[in-house]
Amino acid sequence: MTDFATDVPQGPPRLAPPAAPDAEQTQTINVLPGGPPVKLVGGPPPGAATIESRGAHAWFGDHLVLEDVHIAMPPGEVTALIGPSGCGKSTFLRLLNRMHELVPSASLAGEILLDGEDIYRPGIRAQQVRMRIGMVFQKPNPFPAMSIRDNVLAGLKLARIKCSDKAGLVEQSLLRAGLWREVRDRLGSPGGALSGGQQQRLCIARALAVQPNALLMDEPCSALDPTSTRRIEETIAELRHNVTIVIVTHNMQQAYRVSDRCAFFLAAENEPGRVVEQGATETMFSAPEDQRTLAYVEGRFG
Amino acid sequence: MVAALAPAAEPTAGPAPPARRRPREFTAVDYGTIGGSALSALTLTWLIFARLTDGVGWLGFLVVAYVAFLVLFGLVTADRIGVLAAKDRLATVTITSGAMLLLAPLLWLVGYVLVKGLPGLRPSFFTHDMRGVTPTMPASAGGGLHAIIGSLQQVGLALLITVPLAVSTAVFLNETRSRLRRPVRIVVDAMSGMPSVVAGLFIYATFVIPYGGQIDLFGFNGFMAALALSMIMLPTITRTVEVVLRLVPDGLREASLSLGASRARTVWSVVLPTARSGVTTAVVLGIARAVGETAPLLFTAFGYQLINSNPFANPQESLPLFVFRSITQPQQSMIDRGFTGALVLMLVVLGLFALARFIGRDRTRSRRRTGQAPAMPTGADIFEALPGPGAPVSVAQKGS
User: How far is A291 from chain B (nearest CA, A)?
Assistant: First the structure.
């Protein structure tokens, strides 16, 4: 493959085999702990992916909101994006799976490399990218017209992925999202009938059912109570070895608990957001190089 | 609301529950005050109009009586429980009586048709056409079966034409970013304001005049009527479906796209299923709008005294046409038949609106209580959000 790992500082060895290039019909066999093998045809290639942003800029109209972001998100690790509101964290996250371009006035510059390949290269379909990089939103958004089971399987239907064992996939996905025990007796009831925390875990299960190589989480716990938050943090801890996770959070303690690496975004008044500092979470929280990072992680502003 | 109050209403085994205080509740005393004030206002006004002055007619009587009632009620209540409460009760009474005033013409209209049409509403009306019925025969002879068949076929055909067009137009208006959305929306809005007789004339001039003589399909028949009705229904359904689609939360579209769906797939598998009950309501509203149209049928279906169950050839009757023709006849028996036809038509529309309310009813109550899930658009939301002429009955429904 290509030089995807150049900027990754001593991360752990890759846990997954190198991903195959995007083929129209990729065959994937996933054997998850505690579940039977499930065969998906037409889904993403197996394993966690490397995401790397090189000189990413983002605009809304003529307004530059994000400037020159270089971050490498190594496979099998959790990267937390922290910073005060309005500094471009969410915009950056949406750059990573081409959700940014859904805003009519939005534009960008730079490269986002997924396993070494620029996802904005002509000839790459946005749908293919989004299938490989799942997303969990701030507000739980299960499909209200679908049952819990259909919500989990929605990705297969929407991305036209064929599956050999749907019941097995539902069980595995809900297990990975930590929701199986709570809903296994009522898979047919509507997804909207669950509590907020359960709905968010259902959304995680829905994103995982497609077997993505990476998962983006945009403040997944900001609408949830502490107990639900803890459950989701546990889920993240269990998922991290199979999926690359990028999480935006306003909660310093959460970033410290769940992430291996951190990137601190900051935007001065009337200026675009920039990455002030990034590195291992431990270092960022104990001995940051930049005074502004220290002030932020200690809770002195933001 | 009800669910939240329910636990408080359960009897407790312990000490007697505390007396509940509802400062805004109308008590028996309040109702008594209303009755007494109304009675004294009427007698006072009678005294003024019949004894002290020459009077200025019944409208003046009603206005003076109503004002006297409000003044008396306000004074008595203020004397009883204070000025602040009196203002509150007075506002309640004024608004309630205003609502009743709005409802009165509707009830009058319905009641009039009911009284006039009910005597003719016997089973034979649904089983006979006008075969062999002469002007001298009583209203019990003959029936409106041919009109009912015609109405169902014409509206059914119009529905087949309209629903795919309207739903795809609404999707185009709401789900795409095309530059053509603005002109399309203007055209839809203009169409919804088009007089219905113009729709009939358009079909008449486009198909019936040039080709009607040679080809049966383009002569006077039910299909031509369906085309004219489609032009009436299309803007109504399009605008309602557009409102419904706008109520589908953007978060669902984003969720779908983030799973790797195309935009078309998102609309088909997420947006439309989420709005399904609302779309159904829109369709029923469109039917209710079209089923009562008379003008577009005059030069298309043309009308016919007997059953013609083939909508693609030869003139056909419909319920509004039947009413129109019957009521303009000189014989009392024909006029009675017309009123029965009007009653049947009203029942059909009533049934359709009930159906729309039933399909669009609030099935998301349990979800709304959690305050987390995006709420699906329901029939009630549609009635709230609906623009002007689409929902002529919505005022009455809110009032009732």
Answer: 37
